User: Fold this.
Amino acid sequence: MSMMMALGQFVFSLDTLAYQELQRQMKWRHASNSRIGARPARQFLGVGDDTFNLSGVLMPELTGSTASLDELREMGNLGASWPLVDGMGIVYGLYVIEGLTETKTVFLPNGAARRIEFQLQLERVDDDQTDSIGDDEQTDGIGGDEEVAA
Assistant:
C-alpha cells in the first residue's frame, strides 16, 4: 500500500481514504500603525495560521472505506494534535482536526451511500504543544517542512 499522507497513525491511501485535492493556506502576521500623511507602518509579528484542506470522493464499493471517516471523527473527538507527514517524507508539524464535512449521494435501497464527498480541515498547532499529541507519538524531529531520512 502506498501512502499519500499520514496524520498520526491514520494513513491516507486508495485503501483507506484518498483525497483528490490538497490545499494549503499559510498566513503571516503583521501589525499596522497609522501614520499622518503616509501609509501605515507595518511590523512583522511572526507566522500565523497554517491550514491544510483535503477533499475527495469516497466510493466504498470501489475504493476506500467508511470506517476511515469513523476513525477521523474519533481522532477529532480526542482534540489531540497529530504529526502530518506526506508520502515523500516531509514532516509538516503537528495538526489538529478542525472540521470534517461529508456529503452522501447515490444511495442503495438500504440507505447506504455509494458516493461520499468529504472535506477535512487540519490546523497547525504550536510545536511546543507536545502534551496533546495523540497515541503518545514521539515529537523528536517534528518541526516545519523537514525531510525524514528513509
The chain has one helix and eight strands. The beta strands are 5-7, 10-12, 21-35, 38-58, 82-86, 90-107, 113-124, 146-147.
